[in-house]
Amino acid sequence: DVKVTQSSRYLVKRTGEKVFLECVQDMDHENMFWYRQDPGLGLRLIYFSYDVKMKEKGDIPEGYSVSREKKERFSLILESASTNQTSMYLCASNLKTREQFFGPGTRLTVL
Amino acid sequence: QKEVEQNSGPLSVPEGAIASLNCTYSDRGSQSFFWYRQYSGKSPELIMSIYSNGDKEDGRFTAQLNKASQYVSLLIRDSQPSDSATYLCAVKEARGNTGKLIFGQGTTLQVKP
Fold first, then answer.
1. Average pLDDT over residues B76-90
2. Which of A93, A68, A91, A67 is nearest to A78 (CA)?
């Protein structure tokens, strides 16, 4: 079974803090994705990576950066957290153009 | 802008009935289609994938694809209260080989005992 894990289920941070969200997959998938999900707005793609050290912006990259130093690990970084970044963050991965598998999600609250 | 459209619902059906969830997409060249189930507070879970026109059955679930009409649907037979969730339709972008999916907003299904 594909397993995608995320570093935290719940996270509370203060405005201005630097926040790291980590995602690890164990199936040697080339592609990894970071989404945020908000009520009424659906899933929105923040960034994705198709190979180590390779990344592309998604639909809402502003305020975020990413890092992929190893194939199995994809990190999302909030350089200076703001209250409007309070959301559910979902990591996913897939093999080439196949179905995506999601991690359990991190519910981030920025106070 | 490529789009995937779903009726947000809620779609309410009695226990034991057939639930029919529909999805249309704008990218005519799309070849890969997926249905995910998402319980409240949880992450999306893959239910079905479909790549060819016609029906694909898996237990109580049937996915139907009509590429000419740019339409994909999910039927749930003998609906159970445990099927109550939001169902997301996802379509693989036709252009490129990035593995990106375009997701609909989801349809909320309520199965009443």
1. 97
2. A67
